[in-house]
Amino acid sequence: MTPRPACRCCLRRGSTSRPRWRPPVRCPPPARSPRWRPSSLRRVRALQYAEPGGPLTLVDLPDPEPPVHGAVLAVEATGLCRSDVHAWAGHDPDVVVGAHAGPGGGAATHVPGHELAGRVVAVGAGVDASWLGRRATTPFVHACGSCPECAAGDGQVCRDQTQPGFTTQGSWADQVVVRHADVNLVEVPDDVDGGAAALLGCRFATAYRGLVQRAQLRPGERVLVVGCGGVGLSAVVVAAALGAEVVAADVDERALARAVELGASATVRTAGLSPAEVADAVRAAGGGAGPAVSVDAVGRPGALDACLLSLARRGRHVQIGLVASEPVVEVSRVVSHELALLGSHGMDARSYPELMALVTSGRLRPQDLVARWLPLEDAAGIEALVRAMDGGTAPVGVTMIRP
Question: What residues does each domain of the chain span?
């Protein structure tokens, strides 16, 4: 009789006979599809907080498993964005944490981070296994891929969206889960800087779509950018690269100096000025004419008014900055000047190839916005920057976190 095949744990090397009895040994799992990944005792590091405005703590968490239709990325770079600060401070209704969590939703702790780039290390069932090992970024809005908005190519306003760092655990960690991976992963060439790739997830993509796809910016037009933080400076870089004339406005002289370095041709310091006075200064910087396009990248009181008062007739305004309270819009001016008010909320993954082409060609250099890198383990340093941004005293430029 031919002996029944046995695994290598049960037979001595080279033996074909039935082995002598041994205590039961747990055999390794059988070979499976690359989509499968065994449970691991390895832990991943993450920064989390347990209450709004609370301290950031570096913790060890279980190695994440990819959900069905999802993937896991080993994070190479992740951004510290003002939206992360709003959520940490308790101003984002999507982030319910600590004592505020309950049967209606929320979690005991929360990991921030929504701008990310990394390498795919695991994929779940239903995901193309060829993603394994490839570099990728992802829009901060993870679209479902099946709702009417997604079917129309507008995943950035998906009705069933999730958002890492807001509705799910984020990328201030060694690894992060990407849901509906085949819909949301965007391949990143190996020669693209990690910081640049991460910035494409939120600030750069939001500015690009707002100017190019929403406002239909044309070369030679004048653009006003109010607020020279991360997304505002991204708008400056995008507009200048596309041949527009950029007027940058901010309260901080350092931010304005950085805007000039990145391509702004004129600046307006808004400290102490009313919206009407800001508009007068903007028109003066343009030789008396208002800009064709304006961008509110900060959401501070008076910023929207300054933009609408500055615009030329039939101008287009792009609202990116989130406001703490609903502003009063001068509707009569919107009507009489035929102004267009447009929102920009990220960009669908299918729209990324044209943006990535500008990056790989060197026309756009998102990495030029990065002012500093902090290691993930520097919880105290990252928390200090978060508190500074919340208090309006943040340093100029973009901060990136490296796990």
Answer: 43-202+348-402, 205-343
